[in-house]
Amino acid sequence: MNIYNDILQILLNEEDIKRITADIASKISEKYYDGRLLLVCILNGSFMFFSDIVRRITVPCTIDFIRVSSYGESTVSSESLNFMSDISTDAANKNVVLVDDILDTGLTMYKLRQYFLSEKNAASVSVCTLLDKPARRVYDIKPDYAGSEIPDEFVVGYGLDYNDGYRNLPYIGVLKSEIYKKDV
Ligand code: IMP
Ligand code: MG
């Protein structure tokens, strides 16, 4: 068994990802030079993207992790987020950058931004995503930092999963449709 055989097409290869993460890290470093930058990794999907961004940030920063999942079927917009674990440091008066793998309906980022502003008293909250699927947007949110806009196709790799698999691919690829058809 080889997971590479399940990929229809590569959308972002390792070189694309290097270029994108370097570009985003330099934009964040230019903006937040005052030492109050807190980068928050939204687990599990953004673990690879997050580490590539963080290692290229050149200004002082702290990092933390939050684990959430959205309820409901992927094709139906949902109203609630399931909080599985929260950050462990203080976000008050920090410039928070939320880092996720993909902005789809926007539920995750919309709710987390509200949460960090109203309950964690963050000084500011920006949204950073590797992938943006604007065709699927339900919530009123736009990324402050985005790697690449993609069409409405199901993608995996570089942290993104299908049924918790494929996260270990080093690139972003479109999953062959027969893979999820056989699971229905
Ligand atoms: P949102 O809350 O609807 O914006 O969805 C965000 C989450 O849905 C992401 O963090 C992913 O976990 C998941 N997701 C959305 N589209 C895809 C995809 O094409 N592949 C893998 N996961 C996806
Ligand atoms: Mg995710």
What is the multimeric organization of the chains shown?
A: single chain
Q: What's the main sheet like?
A: 6 strands, mixed
Q: Give every kind of bound small molecule, once each.
A: inosinic acid, magnesium ion
CATH topology type: Rossmann fold
Structural class: alpha/beta
The appropriate CATH architecture is 3-Layer(aba) Sandwich
Tell the overall outline. globular
Low-pLDDT stretches are none
Q: How many domains make up the coordinates?
A: 1
Strand order, largest beta sheet: 4-3-2-5-6-7
Structural overview:
With 184 residues, the chain is of the alpha/beta class. It has one domain (13-153): Rossmann fold. Helix content is 23%, strand content 31%. It has four helices and nine strands, in the order βαβαβββαββββα. The chain has helices spanning 14-31, 47-54, 107-118, 177-181, and strands spanning 7-12, 37-43, 61-70, 81-85, 95-103, 124-132, 145-149, 155-156, 172-175. It has a six-stranded mixed beta sheet with strand order 4-3-2-5-6-7, sandwiched between helices. A three-stranded antiparallel beta sheet has the order 1-9-8. Helix 1 crosses helix 2. The longest helix has 18 residues, at 14-31. Bound molecules: inosinic acid and magnesium ion.
